[in-house]
Automatic annotation (TrEMBL), chains A, B, C, D, E:
Its main location: membrane. It comes from Acidisphaera rubrifaciens HS-AP3. This is Bestrophin. The chain crosses the membrane at residues 12-36, 42-62. Belongs to the anion channel-forming bestrophin (TC 1.A.46) family.
Length: 296, 296, 296, 296, 296
């Protein structure tokens, strides 16, 4: 996630620069050809340019609304993982008397959020996860199709063998923890849904095709009136549409390990710090800080 | 669900190709008739073409918002089925001591998601469901109006006869499971609602009729200005509106067994793999993979 | 609810036909008067017709979004009644040992959904409800201001007298059922809210007035350019706006017993079938089928 | 809330009449000055009137969406108060054996909804609330900053002293009631949020200022083309924008004791009737009926 | 939060005044140069000004929708903190017999909401929080990365050591409080999410850049038609777009300690008053009142 309040012009230029340069060059060519080389057939007066603009507007409004909603839902779901992680460990403080079990649950939970992050980013979780788990558990879970799901199940198994009290109390405790574990399941499932369900392809290909056609036709429609000033109007308008398209592209895949990502590394680190401080640990890792204005 | 990141041009051409060809041919005919055959009455100058464009924009924006919302709600509800299925079996790990009962619950749940998928797709569930159920249960449930609903009731029956503990613990456990079973009921009911409630017919027929009228009138309004370039402007704009209409049509029925469907076969397979790995099984089926860029 | 996938042209013509004929006749009159009778003052060139179109678009987009949201919320709330009805009876299978009490709860619930439907449609529920209730109960509840509310309270009374187990178990069971009964309360309250709160009157009267004014002015603005072709542009555009208005009118009252209604009779029948099959009954009523393409 | 299906033209004229008359008079003056008095500089041909119209459209669409959402959320939250009030008393039928305590809870709840209504409308609740409370309670709660909050706390106190059963049952009952009381807290907090948080002032002042500027400029832009017909186009368009603005103003304060209010008196009466009939009372007050088409 | 119903023109002028003056001066310069100094090349007739207006409209509609949603979500989440704080203390009245523990919980909760407010505003919470906590607790929690989270954990610790009853009752009570503490966790996490996740930078920089370009080009496009009246049209339209941009900027950071903020000081004071009155205290602090029309 980009956190710098200033726009990073270099990054912007790297992604949209070539396109804008190409557009501008094309507009210049059209303007020169018409004005100085007298290529009169380039000017197409009756082009229904505003009409096409309206249609593109409808398209982009729809797509960008949807792309933003995906990005914000992904961020909200990671927020839910944070909340439920804190609630899980807070509940152990109230309901689980054995401090060693509390510690195990907290560390399982840290392993869980790391496994979830690596699963979404399609990275191998084991280098980070293995040190947090007892060896037997690690061995048993290697090869799981969905490691995060199996780690949640592990929480349930661990809680179930705590029977330092009478049976009813144990069952009530299990029922309470079940609620928080289900909240985690729901957030995880939501994140996997966004990761695995691309926006319908229509939303990507059609707008880009139409905007490009628009960029090609626009100077032809304007050149008769603007002559050498054609690029001024044409490039500006096309740039706005390309920028609108770009927003959609950047936001529609919020979990795909790009700079526009939800900052999952920073979030999982925050969870780790909070959970360990709840256990009373004082030596905790440092928060993740932005690198070049980007928080990962 | 189409998962290939590239647009499949052949599929696109198959669905919208004929229409575009027809449009283009018509535009050519109008342009030729006006420019070379001098059929001057074809050009209708005062046509309020932009006005009609605005009205169509309002219509399509409304319809496509609604169609996308249906598609995403269907996907989200299937996600809820995934989450609750995992939570159900995870809760058995904590709260049900008998491994055989855990296994029965997990297999009933796999049968449930298959029955739900087949019910939505209007297919016979029994070939897939029968091997997962005890024979007596299968016999009793044949003929159910809604097999999925009866399979959830079966879960409740199975849980209720587990009385290896004192009465209170049993009741607390039933209360906890009741929450997850109700989540499943709610997701299932939501999916049936989307399946059984078509979008109000207005949303389909009116836009198509108006867009077609628009496609017919547009070249008449443009031909005086564009002459032989008429198809360039006219076909492009009509194509954008037809594409917008197409998106709505593709997304409004997300559970009807088309290529734009929620990939229910893949989702139910994922559930099966996760639940079996939670039981400790290592020989699990393979995930469903896309066929020709389409995940079913 | 209209379920036929084909538009029923006869129904459409019956509702919007007269209006369209009137519009078309008026447009013809204007065109003839201007073109052949030379009534030149009819043509008002400077009319800001597109501006008015934009304002109407804003109005209709707002209204139709809201109307659709009401319709879909009503449908979703009836879905919640279905889900909670199934959950209620499923919970009796797990938690209520006495089969006679299970049966009473299921039949009370069937009576509840019928009372809810009749209450919303302002029909007398007693002919359908009376046969489902014990006579004493029926006598006590006659004269209730809100029969559905009192039937839910009856469920609570019935559950409360089941004390075949120790006190704690009984209380846990009551707590679990309370959740499902509250879900039913919430859905019912939502339906009554939609039924009793008409859309603010502004949303109905202003658009219709403005569209009508628009239909009257439009041919005057177009006739100078289009002459005898005026009706072609004018009637088409007005028809689109009237169609958009019609959608809003049809959807804004989804519980008022019209053809655009939520199909409450069919939904309550589905509930009845599912609940009775959960009790093990095999002789159940048939589902409601559409009559002339309309499901009630 | 206005319930009459017919628009009350007199009310409308009273609120927007003077403005429309002023606009119309101004338009007439412009038209006469230009056409007959030859004040040619009044006509400003190049005014970008449609552009301004688009900007106003964006503004009003945003504002009216938000205003409607506030109105509907307020209505929905009052619906939640209805639902939770019914659920609270229904739960006493199942879980509280002493009929006198049931009665006290129901009457406290009636006092609660009245206190909530009066608090939102900034009226003194005591004349209505005092007769419903035991004198000691009333004396203790006088002077509360937020009477409704303290009445909910009173429910908790009353429930807590019911110890006719063993400790566990009592605690389970308290846990169940806590859920419903929290639902009431949430609805109450939501209503106070809407009441105490005005829409950002931008949303009110800017649109009105711009629409007024628009109303002043519009006839100047149209008069050259329309001459004496200027008011026909100008007043109509301005009226549409003023009507759109009016909708926002009417709906944005749904709890401020105006005719566009949520009908809180009627809703609290409905609650009173339902709760008393649940206690078995037959002598209940009559529902509130509309006065002059307005339900309060 | 600005609560005065009248717009504070001085504040407005301070923020947007300089910009408007600059725009107006520029427009005057263009008008004078063209009209009196005969700088004819300033007039660019063919500028597609309306097209650019449409594109900006799409942009601003999207951005302002999103900014308002952030503002309202932040307000709603603080409302949830209010509701859950009341519910927490209300539950102690029912479920915690020891009045001293009730008091401690209420004061911890007051400390919690203050810590949350200071954390969001990046202020040191200790001057306000320290007097509310036992010294040992304060010492232990100094240095917490997230003080609010640790204070919630403290609530859990405090509740867990109350064992004046048998084990089951204690566990049921812990389960009930866990629900309310999780609600607080969720609201807190949501507020931190909004605070820490800036709106994607695209949404800020692009619109401002495009609007500025628009403000520069607009008088060039209008001057040929309007001559010395150019500023009338140009400044007005630009002002509307800048105002729309301003709304977004003001609302998109609702927790950043500006005048457009959610009034967190007032809300936390309200919570303090309500909780202390629930304990029966009569000497409570006064509500926060607006200073210069702004509630903090």
């Amino acid at each position: 996630m980009i956190v710098g309040l200033e726009l990073d012009w270099r990054r912007l230029l790297r992604t949209t620069g070539p396109l804008l340069v190409a557009l501008f060059a094309y507009d210049i060519v059209v303007a020169v050809a018409y004005t100085y080389l007298n290529v009169r057939w380039l000017a197409i007066d009756g082009l229904p340019v505003p009409l096409l603009g309206t249609a593109i507007g409808v398209f982009l409004a729809l797509r960008n609304n949807v792309a933003y909603a995906r990005w914000w839902e992904a961020r909200t779901l990671w927020g839910a993982v944070v909340n439920a992680s804190r609630s899980l460990v807070r509940a152990t403080l109230a309901m689980v008397p054995d401090p060693e079990v509390r510690r195990q649950i907290a560390y399982l939970q840290i392993a869980y959020v790391i496994a979830l992050r690596c699963g979404l980013r399609r990275l191998d979780p084991w280098p980070e996860v293995a040190p947090l788990l007892p060896e037997a558990t690690a061995a048993r879970l290697r090869g799981s199709a969905n490691l995060a799901t199996q780690l949640l199940a592990e929480q349930a198994r661990l809680l179930s063998v705590q029977n330092d009290e009478d049976g009813d109390s144990r069952m009530i405790r299990l029922g309470t923890f079940d609620r928080t574990l289900s909240d985690l399941s729901n957030a995880q499932g939501g994140l996997e849904r966004i990761r695995n369900t691309p926006l319908p392809r229509h939303f990507d290909h059609f707008p880009r095709f139409v905007i490009t056609a628009y960029g090609v036709l626009l100077p032809l429609g304007l050149v008769a009136g603007l002559e050498m000033l054609t690029p001024l109007g044409s490039t500006l308008i096309s740039a706005v549409f390309f920028a609108l398209d770009r927003i959609g592209v950047d936001l529609e895949t919020p979990l795909d390990n790009t700079v526009h990502d939800v900052p999952m590394t920073a979030i999982t680190r925050t969870i780790e710090i909070d959970l360990r401080q709840m256990l009373g640990e004082t030596a905790v890792p440092k928060p993740v800080t932005p690198v070049g204005g980007v928080l990962w």
